[in-house]
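Narrative summary of target 7.
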Amino acid sequence: AARVPVHAVARPAMTDALRARIDQVQQAVDSLTRLDVTYRGDTGAQTERILRPLGLFFWGEVWTLVAWCELRNDFRMFRLDRITRCDPGGVFRPDPQQTLRIFLARETGRH
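Modeled conformation, tokenized:
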């Protein structure tokens, strides 16, 4: 046991703001409510999006929202820490071609 190296990585603590954003997004997923967001991309450019939220994923460092993006008319993934504004929109009717299951099958098929 003395020869086995042990490595530990400290993750940043979850802030109250992030916890509130997770709760807000999860409520929108559960209630089929669109989200009107301002999103800051990796270059810093901001875009306005209307999203149909499908699910939340944690990738060890960041929380990610999988959604149907009405701007791009396609599935997209959004880091919660890059959403600078998030307001509830109207309720949407689920589309059988815009489900989390289809997104996951498509992503799995790419790898």
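The chain has a mean pLDDT of 91.
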